[in-house]
């Protein structure tokens, strides 16, 4: 535990005390250095550099409702085109890397750069990858990027921007007592000006995103079969894995004909091989007998000569 705490504190100190250096002169790379932790920034940096060197824009659609569609090609992937829809506050790529990994792809950065967006949209900055993850509110995990949540897109964007601004102010205050006292005074005055309103609670947020909670009774039945013992669980093996496992096994061969189609019991050459072995055994037995007779004769001759 002490080692984990030390590593945790060391990584936090590296992220908050220094900013990694940028390779290109793009504003969006400098913005990523301010937002992401060091390991995630290096992955983002690779995608940004790849967007500059490996992307080829094939077609650009018209601007409709602030959204422009790009059709681009990756030189590292032959005969495959990617469709990217980009606006000032959002970007969506057909490769779906952001959905799978949580970071933007090279196609998205290429479209953002061509669309003259100098900062990464804050809706696409996940809390777990940011340098200020500990200071972000718990409600930020409800920030969505899907088209189904456009009703909450403006509110989520404003909440993210406010928390980024507040964290920036706290970093500027540092450990200065006077500046921290001023920030505390301003926050208290803001709380008194806002009153005692409950604001947007977690329940209200969920109702806006997924609809109100049903009022009628809901009956949930138990499943037909349930496995609640960990030792009884077996992983389902796919047909592909079964085929690979069977292919790696060494095929059994017939000892007579060395064929893998049949075995020694059903070999058509079994009788021939048995007869051949019997003849060999018979001939070897006759040779042994003859050699025994020759040795006996020689012994008898030698004994007669001595007499």
UniProtKB/TrEMBL annotation:
Cross-referenced InterPro entries: FHY3/FAR1 (IPR031052), Znf_PMZ (IPR006564), Znf_SWIM (IPR007527)
Keyword set, alphabetical order: Metal-binding, Nucleus, Zinc, Zinc-finger
Classification via Pfam families: SWIM
GO biological processes: regulation of DNA-templated transcription
GO molecular function (one): zinc ion binding
Region spans: Disordered: 247-307
Annotated compartments: Nucleus
Single GO cellular component term: nucleus
Major location (coarse): nucleus
Chain ranges of the SWIM-type domain: 82-116
Basic and acidic residues bias spans: 262-289
Keyword Nucleus found: yes
Family: Belongs to the FHY3/FAR1 family.
Function: Putative transcription activator involved in regulating light control of development.
Protein name, entry field: Protein FAR1-RELATED SEQUENCE
Species this protein is from: Heracleum sosnowskyi
């Amino acid at each position: 535990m002490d080692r984990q705490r030390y590593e945790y504190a060391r990584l936090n100190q590296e992220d908050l005390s220094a900013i990694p250096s940028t390779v290109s002169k793009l504003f969006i790379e400098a913005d990523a250095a301010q937002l992401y932790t060091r390991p995630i920034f290096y992955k983002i940096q690779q995608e940004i550099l790849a967007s500059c060197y490996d992307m080829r824009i094939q077609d650009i659609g018209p601007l409709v409702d602030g959204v422009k569609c790009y059709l681009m090609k990756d030189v590292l992937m032959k005969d495959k085109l990617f469709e990217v829809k980009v606006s000032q506050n959002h970007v969506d790529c057909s490769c779906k890397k952001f959905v799978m990994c949580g970071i933007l792809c090279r196609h998205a950065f290429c479209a953002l750069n061509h669309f003259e967006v100098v900062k990464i949209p804050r809706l696409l900055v996940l809390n777990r990858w940011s340098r200020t993850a500990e200071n972000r509110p718990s409600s930020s995990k409800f920030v969505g990027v899907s088209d189904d949540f456009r009703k909450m897109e403006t509110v989520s964007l404003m909440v993210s921007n406010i928390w980024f601004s507040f964290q920036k102010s706290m970093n500027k205050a540092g450990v200065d007592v006077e500046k921290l006292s001023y920030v505390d005074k301003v926050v208290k005055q803001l709380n008194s000006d806002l009153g005692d309103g409950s604001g947007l609670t977690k329940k209200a947020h969920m109702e806006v995103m997924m609809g109100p909670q049903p009022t009628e009774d809901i009956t949930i039945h138990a499943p037909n079969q349930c496995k609640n013992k960990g030792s009884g669980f077996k992983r389902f093996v796919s047909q592909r894995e079964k085929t690979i496992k069977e292919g790696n096994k060494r095929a059994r061969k017939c000892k007579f004909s060395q064929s893998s189609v049949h075995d020694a019991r059903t070999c058509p050459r079994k009788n021939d091989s048995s007869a051949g072995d019997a003849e060999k055994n018979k001939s070897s037995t006759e040779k042994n007998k003859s050699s025994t007779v020759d040795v006996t004769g020689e012994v008898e001759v030698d004994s007669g000569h001595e007499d």
